[in-house]
Amino acid sequence: MRPHYLGIAALGLVAGIANTTNAQVCQGTAPFSAGSTRIGAGMQFTDGAKAYGGGLAFGSSNSLFGSAEYVHTQFDDLDAGSNGVSLQGGYSIAMNTSRSVQLCPLVGFAYQSGPDFDTGFGTVSSSLRAFAFGGSIGTTVAMSPTMDFVPFGGALYEMDHFSSSLGGVSSSGDDNTTVIQLGGGFVFNKVFTIQPSVLIPTESGSKPTYGISFGYNFGKPAK
Predict the structure, then answer these.
(1) Which of 17, 27, 57, 194 is the most exposed place for a label (fewest CB within 10 A)?
(2) Which tens digit of pLDDT belongs to each residue from 77-122?
(3) Calpha distance 108→130 (Å, rounded)
(4) What pTM does this model have?
(5) 12 pLDDT exceeds 60?
């Protein structure tokens, strides 16, 4: 099993620290029909750690989309933190004629550097690579002329490879788990999203991760 601090960080990296940069209706945000570019930022909290990040996404309303994000994670029991980048792509599929329900197959890759910390006998250096695939579905519910509620749910199967070294001695391992993601976006004027969410890993002993993220769509809608 991967070290606890690497397992915490992997959830934020692959599932997305800033969900509002990732997709659209299928992940609880304003659609790319409101603007082909989205800038977003967010934070997540779980037992033993908190993370912050942000990124950019590009896409069209019913076609391919992609995103790139930066994540910094801090751990309660370590002075050191970790930094990571993640890439995610998918394809949005309208499930009804009004395009208010959307299904998205997803794929993601992430790399984390750290945490590196001094044990008193030497410095432990660690890193993590993660790959995930899965999907999500969401719908748009009009609450008022200027606000929509966009609930969503999905799951990702995550495959992690972690490594660490101390005093020239290296070790590594692999760990796989499924992460369930639930949330809902409050979309204002079709372009600004506030989204609470929760990540629920199915791995025994893992704790849920709670998050809040923000996103803004701009630019001409992609055809």
Answers:
(1) 194
(2) 777 788 888 888 888 888 887 777 889 998 888 888 877 777 777 7
(3) 8
(4) 0.84
(5) no
Residue 134, beta-bridge partner list = 106, 156
Q: How far apart are CA 211 and CA 43, in angstroms?
A: 6
Question: Which CATH number characterizes residue 115's domain?
Answer: 2.40.160.20
How many domains does one find in the chain? 1
Place of tokens 């933190």: 81
**Cβ(162)–Cβ(177) below 8 Å:** no
Q: What's the whole-number mean pLDDT along residues 13-29?
A: 64
Assigned domain for 45 exists: yes
With respect to residue 223, please indicate whether it lies within any of the assigned structural domains: no
- Secondary structure element (H or E) that encloses residue 15, with its range: helix 4-15
Degrees (nearest 5) of the Cα angle 184, 197, 94? 45
β-pairing, 37-46 with 49-59? antiparallel
Cβ contact 182:198 at 8 Å: yes
Residues 18 and 198: their CA atoms lie apart, in Å, by 12
Domain membership of residue 171 as a residue range? 4-218
CA distance 200 to 210: 9
Question: Length of the chain, please?
Answer: 223
The answer to whether position 89 is within a domain reads yes
